């Protein structure tokens, strides 16, 4: 057990804590027995009467250290001396697939989430925040990872608070010594085989030699990333409300943002009875419709060809020097059908044939329009995703015009297609 043999000469009557309104709430502190959680419990115990919350502690027994029972005993004695109710939770750490550190964190968070409290407080501090930012960046994380840990987040349905997140560890140690506190030392903190310990023991001192305030600067950068992330969440909530959708939980909203801003070419998700799609930096909202059978139909040269199943129509117009030769098309019947995949087209007789997939990509046609899905293992297609679309006006439809003879002619209907009979897909907006 560690303690305060030598007290700091500075007066540390209190620490800067970040706390929301907790009047009448039950607040549980995650108590490991280390100096950080002991200091947090001590400080909150002093503030509880003033702020009007009921304080308790939760100790998670991971069973990973030979000293785990001794740490539990220390926490029991400490809480008894301070008249703080304590709950001890024994957990099993799953080591497969996620690693020891991650497995222990998952088990610990699950145990804390079940605590009989309205909110949970953890003792993460500024040094932890800086290490988390650095660790996430080294793993290739994006803005959300660079934002690291929020001062106020969620743990399941409970608020998760980190009151010491702006406090450097040196201030925590000074506070502990000034108040004569005792704590336990986790021997695993000296194991540099663990990634976070390697950063703390080896990388941190090197950075401090050249950048003395590297911890403060990385923590400040995390705050800037978090502010940007918060703006993105507000914008997403406003976007959903504008389209008549309810905002999801914070966890689901974060996942939606992650998917919609990712690099996936076929990002589609359903929420609150509608479908969200992301393509080339734009988000679309469309009402999901029940599957409808599409039957190929003939085109006899009319200027418009309604396609009720796809809630739109094909429009044709004459153009000079481009597209299907009107003379050759006269008197012939073309067939309109959905794509099946693998088709190729030669839009210019002087150039080689190219796949329709590549042509559509160049034309900026979203990928969900390009794929004809099937209801069953048959050739009967579903709707090809051509529904009411907002924010991104898609003036394109894949279509094939196959003559009834053995030889066939094809053309694409897109913003970049150029045919004597030019095609344009126009959405039929729902009213």
């Amino acid at each position: 057990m560690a303690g305060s043999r030598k007290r700091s000469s500075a007066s540390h009557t209190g620490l800067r804590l970040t706390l929301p309104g907790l009047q009448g709430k039950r607040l549980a502190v995650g108590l490991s027995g280390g100096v950080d959680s002991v200091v947090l419990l001590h400080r909150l115990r002093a503030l509880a009467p003033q702020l009007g919350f009921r304080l308790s502690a939760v100790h998670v027994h991971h069973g990973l250290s030979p000293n785990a029972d001794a740490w539990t005993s220390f926490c029991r004695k400490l809480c008894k001396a301070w008249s703080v109710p304590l709950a001890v939770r024994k957990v099993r750490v799953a080591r497969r697939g996620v690693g020891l550190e991650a497995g222990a964190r998952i088990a610990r968070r699950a145990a804390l989430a079940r605590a009989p409290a309205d909110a949970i407080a953890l003792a993460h501090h500024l040094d932890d925040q800086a290490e988390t930012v650095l660790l996430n960046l080294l793993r290739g994380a994006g803005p959300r990872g660079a934002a690291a840990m929020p001062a106020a987040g969620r743990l399941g349905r409970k608020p998760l608070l980190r009151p010491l997140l702006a406090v450097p560890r040196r201030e925590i140690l000074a506070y502990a010594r000034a108040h004569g506190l005792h704590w336990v030392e986790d021997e695993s903190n000296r194991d540099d085989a663990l990634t976070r310990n390697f950063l703390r023991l080896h990388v941190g001192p090197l950075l401090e030699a050249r950048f003395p305030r590297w911890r403060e600067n990385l923590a400040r950068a995390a705050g800037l990333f978090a502010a940007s992330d918060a703006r993105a969440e507000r914008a997403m909530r406003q976007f959903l409300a504008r389209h008549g959708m309810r905002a999801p939980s914070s966890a689901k909203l974060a996942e939606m943002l992650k998917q919609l801003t990712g690099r996936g070419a076929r990002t589609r998700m359903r929420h609150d009875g509608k479908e969200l799609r992301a393509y080339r930096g734009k988000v679309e909202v469309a009402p999901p419709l029940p599957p409808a059978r599409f039957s190929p139909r003939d085109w006899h040269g009319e200027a418009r060809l309604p396609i009720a199943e796809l809630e739109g129509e094909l429009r044709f117009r004459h153009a000079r020097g481009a597209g299907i030769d009107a003379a050759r098309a006269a008197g012939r019947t073309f067939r309109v059908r959905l794509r099946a995949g693998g088709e190729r087209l030669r839009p210019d007789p002087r150039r080689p044939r190219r796949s329709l997939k590549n042509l559509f990509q160049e034309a900026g046609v979203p990928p969900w329009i390009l794929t004809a899905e099937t209801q069953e293992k048959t050739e009967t297609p579903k709707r090809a995703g051509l529904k009411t679309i907002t924010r991104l006006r898609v003036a394109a439809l894949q279509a094939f015009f196959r003559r009834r003879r053995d030889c066939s002619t094809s053309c694409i209907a897109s913003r970049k297609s150029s045919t004597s009979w030019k095609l344009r897909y126009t959405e039929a907006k729902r009213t």
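The chain has twelve helices and 17 strands. Residues 339 and 372 are 6 Å apart (CA to CA).
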